[in-house]
Design brief:
heterodimer; A: 214 residues; B: 271 residues; six-stranded mixed sheet; 7 helices; membrane (chain A); transmembrane helix (chain A)
């Protein structure tokens, strides 16, 4: 699976498809963390939400680079669909970890008052949101949606629902609790569990549909 | 070593509710044998190879055995900026290969223009096909699956491909390849099959050396493959090219004209 991860990271790096999303994310961070007196946790809520969108973008971008025929060759070498999907997930998660660290370290430097538990909470929230983003990106990618236009439309609709709908208890409860300064323990634990369920369900569903279509 | 690498029993394939692409295919691939599959465009060759490579699932029947495969599709879409060497290294690592020292000598043997550092997207069709071939043979597969491997390669690479197929056979692996040209298939295969409308049938692996005639027909006439003496029908552009036994040439020509075909060329052929 690590060989797959390396391959996908190399593909993504060569394609430069990460640039628009990463630059937009860095711009959000520059604006967000410009005021050193602002409390960190609500700001983390905003940048974690942004990372959810970026992770979804990166997942779709990574899986869209290979032509379907070339993907068959990759599958023939990997032999297991799980290795291919797992490799893609790890590659994007690695990118998201770097971006999450950039946000947390940047905010700590700018504010100069970030206690470690708050920074740890910030990083955890970013990673949880990244997992949600990857879970959305997998079924919206070229693996299941052959045309880019439909991919984008599907991703935008699902992202909007996950981020904005209060009754959809995925990332929304955690992000609302963070931005409104509410108690975080319950929403954080719930979000961890739901993120793991979401990525597992997304990977399983995509694998099942790919096998059925093959 | 087992007596067979993979066995297909009554395999059929249908995409959605469409017409079946394959029907009742029985095929055994033993180790150390080269199997050639002859067929026209759309006859089901590529689908059969994808099922052998476990990249497509059969709709009916059973596939027994799952050897490690090296797979070359009929076109190798090289659209990335990654170099040929880097791509092959990634594929080898994904396959589980630790020793990557064979990559550069293999690319040199295939005479890849520009060398191993050439980005994939800058390669011509023939050179991209060489990289595709390299990724398939590099991993020393138990079953080498090649979809029309000779198309797009230059003459020098044809000879190397023939050697690679022979070497794969010698080390006890199986090879299955397709082509639409009977002489090419007969030259390299131990066993020859013909696939027509999704049905696979065995063909004598000895080449029929009796006199034959090549006919180029244009237009949209009826199917002539079932006519007596017709050895091969290959779709080409807006028509077909027939290889017909010389003794049946007049009857087939008459049938073609009656069937609405326009005859463009009739010439004796060597095989």
């Amino acid at each position: 699976m690590l060989a797959m991860t390396r391959y996908y990271l190399a593909l993504l790096a060569h394609s430069q498809r990460y640039l628009p999303a990463v630059l937009a994310y860095l711009a959000v961070n520059v604006i967000l963390y410009s005021d050193p007196r602002s409390p960190l946790i609500p700001q983390y809520g905003v940048s974690a939400g942004a990372l959810l969108v970026v992770s979804c973008w990166l997942t779709i971008a990574t899986l869209d680079i290979e032509d379907p025929v070339q993907r068959l060759i990759t599958f023939s070498h990997a032999r297991r669909l799980r290795a291919v999907l797992g490799g893609a997930v790890l590659a994007v998660l690695g990118c998201a970890l770097v971006l999450g660290c950039v946000s947390v370290v940047w905010s700590a430097i700018k504010s100069g008052h970030g206690p470690l538990p708050v920074l740890g909470l910030g990083l955890a929230a970013h990673l949880i949101c990244a997992v949600f983003g990857i879970a959305i990106g997998l079924p919206c990618s070229r693996l299941l949606v052959p045309r880019v236009g439909w991919s984008v439309l599907a991703a935008v609709l699902v992202l909007a629902a996950v981020l904005l709908l209060k009754w959809l208890p995925l990332a929304n409860p955690l992000l609302r609790a963070m931005t409104n300064d509410h108690p975080l323990t319950g929403p954080l634990v719930l979000a961890v569990v739901l993120a793991l369920v979401a990525i597992f369900a997304s990977g399983t569903a995509v694998g099942y549909l790919l096998r059925r279509r093959a | 070593m087992t007596a067979e690498l993979i066995r297909l029993e009554g395999v059929g394939k249908r995409y959605g509710r469409g017409e079946p692409v394959l029907e009742g295919v029985d095929l055994v691939v033993p180790p150390g044998r080269v199997i050639g599959i002859l067929g026209t465009n759309g006859s089901g060759k590529s689908t059969l190879l994808r099922i052998l490579a476990a990249l497509s699932r059969e709709s009916e029947g059973r596939v027994v055995g799952r050897p490690r495969v090296g797979y070359l599709p009929d076109r190798f879409p090289a659209g990335q900026r990654m170099s040929a060497r880097a791509y092959l290294r990634h594929m080898a690592r994904i396959h589980g290969l630790a020793d990557l020292s064979a990559i550069d000598p293999l690319l040199a043997r295939l005479a890849l223009v520009g060398g191993p550092r050439s980005p994939l997207r800058t390669l011509s069709k023939g050179n991209a096909q060489k990289v595709g071939l390299a990724q398939a043979v590099l991993v020393d597969p138990e079953l080498l699956i090649l979809d029309e491997p000779w198309s797009g390669l230059d003459v020098e690479a044809h000879a190397v491909l023939g050697e690679l197929v022979a070497e794969t056979k010698e080390r006890g692996a199986g090879v299955v390849f397709t082509d639409h040209r009977a002489p090419v298939v007969h030259e390299h295969a131990d066993e020859v099959f013909r696939i027509d409308h999704g049905r696979l049938s065995a063909v004598s692996s000895t080449v029929d050396t009796s006199p034959a005639v090549r006919m180029v027909l244009h237009g949209t006439g009826g199917d002539l493959s079932a006519e007596p003496g017709v050895r091969e029908v290959v779709a080409e552009g807006a028509g077909v090219v027939l290889t017909v036994e010389a003794g049946n040439a007049d009857a087939v020509l008459l049938c073609a004209l009656n069937g609405g075909w326009s005859v463009r060329e009739v010439a004796p052929c060597s095989r």
